[in-house]
Design brief:
Shape: globular
Distance between the termini: 73 Å
Largest sheet: 5 strands, parallel
Number of helices: 20
Helix content: 40-55%
Order of helices and strands: HHHEHEHEHHEHHEHEHHEHHHHHHHH
Number of strands: 7
């Protein structure tokens, strides 16, 4: 029995123009587009989330530049195996003047010593290395390797990108060739649960096509094959804003249970966890503020945890943050103070900084009176001294009211 090729592989883009969501590098004037137009290919590392097109890009480079293509996974391939192939490609380069692209998926899994083994071949230009990673290369790859490659960051695929890819899989001759009808509700659901990963979306579509009755793929079919309930949630529409508002207001009202529920609704509905993390950081400074400065530390730590470990493990970091923020003392004093200061900064005359508050690094500045009569607070009891810090037109103005 022959195992069929997965849909995600059969409809892989066959040209750079078919790749979605990466116009910043592939569009007119983009750095990768310039390499293609100039007919010059350099070793590179593609940094981006799963399913955004890293492997596809590498394969298209080989096709466009008529180069041999060898693919490895750093998770399963040993460095000895790769060095063997690199030595062989070096010989082929000398004998036939033919380029070879060595594509290494999950390159961040190689340790420093293993990464160093690539350096002689990159230095001589005998191979073209294309690495793919979901981890930040600045932290995971050593500096000597980074100095010899170009790093390109690829973007997560958007909700609309995901819908386009699913529809391509449905209609392509090498895909499902329009043999099935996909309801709009099912299309939105697949796009939501795939979290920007094209492979996940196409796998879900393919499984649903195998389970479809009467050639119709509806929401219930997709729910059944992915074992996930469709929640009423549109990341691009009103429900997106309704739910984040409900989460924010539940936190402001110190109701941890409601906040956890709205958090779960958003995450299980397919919301980007980093979007939620950013809103929690905003809440920590807007609604908790000086009443509990540790709230900002915890919110930023939750954001870092989500970025570091992803889903579903990162969901618990957000849940922990939500419970902490709900239970924290609340104060919007810093928020209201800054808004008042911002209004004055925008609407009042931008008067010059008072002379006594200016630094005087040159003799001329001292002669002009810069820094004259400034009172150094540390020379006074409790490091406090009575002197004016506001410009002339705002003397006596107060913004922050502690409490």
């Amino acid at each position: 029995m022959t195992t069929p090729t997965p849909l995600a592989d059969t409809i892989r883009p066959e040209s750079f123009e078919e790749i979605l969501g990466q116009d910043h590098v592939l569009g007119t004037g983009g750095p990768i587009r310039r390499q293609i137009d100039q007919g010059r290919l350099f070793s590179m590392v593609l940094f981006g989330p799963p399913g955004c097109g890293k492997t596809t890009l590498a394969r298209l480079f080989a096709k466009t530049f008529d180069a041999d293509f060898i693919s490895f996974s750093a998770a399963t391939s040993g460095i000895a195996e790769i060095k063997k192939f690199m030595a062989e490609t070096e010989k082929r380069k000398h004998l036939y003047n033919r380029d070879t692209i060595i594509f290494i998926d999950e390159i961040h899994r190689f340790n420093k010593a293993q990464q160093d083994a690539f350096l002689p071949y990159l230095e001589k230009g005998s191979v073209i290395l294309i690495g793919a990673t979901t981890e930040n290369p600045s932290f995971e790859l050593n500096s000597s390797l980074l100095s010899r490659v170009k790093v390109y960051m690829l973007h997560p695929l958007s909700f609309e990108n995901m819908k386009q890819i699913v529809l391509r899989g449905l209609s392509a001759d090498n895909g499902l060739a329009n043999r099935f009808r996909l309801t709009d509700e099912a299309l939105d659901f697949i796009a939501n649960i795939s979290d920007g990963d094209a492979r996940v979306a196409l796998n879900a579509l393919e499984l649903a096509s195998l389970a479809a009755k009467d050639k119709t793929i509806d929401i219930h079919t997709v729910e059944d094959v992915v074992q996930k309930k469709a929640l009423k949630y549109d990341k691009q529409g009103e429900e997106h804003y309704n739910l984040i508002s409900a989460l924010h207001k539940s936190l402001r009202g110190s109701n941890a249970d409601a906040a956890l529920y709205w958090l779960a609704r958003m995450l299980e509905g397919g919301e980007d966890p980093l979007y939620i993390a950013r809103r929690l950081v905003r809440f920590a400074v807007e609604d908790v503020g000086k009443a509990d400065p540790n709230a900002l530390v915890i919110a930023v730590a939750a954001k870092d945890a989500v970025h570091f470990i992803g889903r579903p493990e990162g969901d618990l970091a957000l849940a922990q943050c939500v419970v902490y923020l709900a239970g924290a003392r609340k104060s919007n004093a810093v928020y209201t103070a800054y808004e008042a200061a911002k209004e004055d900064a925008l609407k009042t005359l931008a008067e010059p900084v008072p002379l006594h508050l200016r630094n005087a690094p040159t003799g001329l500045m001292k002669k002009l009176g810069y820094g004259k009569d400034y009172k150094y607070p540390h020379n006074f009891p409790d490091a406090r001294v009575d002197q004016e810090y506001m410009p002339e037109n705002l003397k006596g103005q107060t913004y922050f009211k502690d409490g």
